[in-house]
Design brief:
Blueprint: H1 2-12, H2 14-21, E1 30-31, E2 46-50, E3 54-61, H3 70-85, E4 88-95, E5 106-108, E6 113-115, E7 117-120, H4 136-139, H5 147-158, H6 164-178, H7 184-190, H8 200-234, H9 239-246, H10 250-259, H11 266-274
Parallel strand pairs: 3-4, 4-7
Antiparallel strand pairs: 1-2, 2-3, 5-6
Helix pairs in contact: 1-2, 5-6, 8-10
Length: 278
């Protein structure tokens, strides 16, 4: 859910993020809606903000370990964006929760190096977030010697936000983000209005989460069915082939479900995977 919260903030207040990360105060800022084919891109933690001359790619992560690994994901996004828009692309990976895992700032092989920026919120000065209400939710995860004092300071700043509708929405985001670091009892004692579950933003995120859960459920079900059919038809499948099948989108899995009826041998499946529809 915290990934969706950050996506909500970036899409509601894109200028706040360009001012923070690009030092760009240009009013010509918009959210870039794209799936960057070849395959649909994960939409829950990724936001693309387009300014006059460049694209800001924001990647929000609670846990730094993902599949595929974050460095490869960042390179993949950069290539797709550059191929489609041919402009400067600034990539920023924002880590929300403290971790002892070493998070790479580049994708590196023997012949390729691709760099991107990594922000660890727990190392950031919280004061930079107080001047812009849209960034206040990040302040509760920032560096501090007294976490309770910081949370109270953020709550006081939230209470100054006008109009009331915006105050309610941002208060909800702050409280939910604070849940990564603070006990629920402390959050509720400081934010007396509670979680405000009636807020438009909160309900929107819940609906999106439910939809994503249904999508993942459909995909897992389709994957299980197809693997079972392939095992019966072709026998044991090499791990590499199974991995390729797991990487398919739901639409591709449905297409494979029809195509596999014509497979007679493992090479038939391998040939389909090489030329599969995108």
């Amino acid at each position: 859910m915290r990934d969706n919260l950050c996506k909500y903030l970036a899409e509601q207040y894109p200028t706040a993020f360009t001012q923070w990360l690009l030092k760009d105060s240009s009013p010509q800022v918009s959210i870039l809606k794209t799936e960057l084919s070849l395959e649909p891109i994960r939409a829950d933690s990724v936001t693309f903000v387009q300014t006059q001359d460049r694209i800001l790619h924001l990647e929000f992560q609670v846990e730094p370990q993902t599949e595929p690994p974050l460095p490869l994901r960042m390179l993949d996004y950069w290539v797709r964006l550059h191929r489609k828009y041919a402009c400067e692309i600034v990539q920023v990976l924002i880590l929300l929760r403290r971790t002892t895992i070493d998070v790479p700032t580049a994708f590196e092989t023997e012949t390729t190096i691709h760099r991107y920026r990594v922000i660890k919120l727990w190392e950031e000065d919280p004061q930079q977030f107080f001047n812009n209400p849209a960034l206040l939710p990040f302040a509760v995860l920032a560096q501090t010697c007294n976490s309770e004092e910081l949370l109270r300071a953020v709550a006081e700043r939230v209470n100054q936000i006008e109009p009331e509708s915006e105050r309610r929405e941002l208060s909800t985001v702050v409280q939910l983000m604070a849940g990564l670091q603070y006990k629920e009892e402390l959050i509720e004692s400081i934010f007396r209005e509670g979680m405000m579950r009636e807020s438009v933003m909160y309900q929107k995120i819940l609906r999106e989460g439910e939809q994503q859960g249904l999508q993942r459920g459909r995909q897992e079900g389709e994957l299980t069915l197809i693997l079972r059919q392939l095992h019966r038809r072709l026998g044991h499948l090499p791990d590499e082939v199974v991995s390729q099948i797991r990487d398919l989108s739901l639409e591709q899995l449905e297409t494979l479900g029809e195509a596999l009826l014509d497979f007679q041998t493992l090479p038939d499946l391998e040939a389909w995977l090489r030329i599969r529809p995108h």
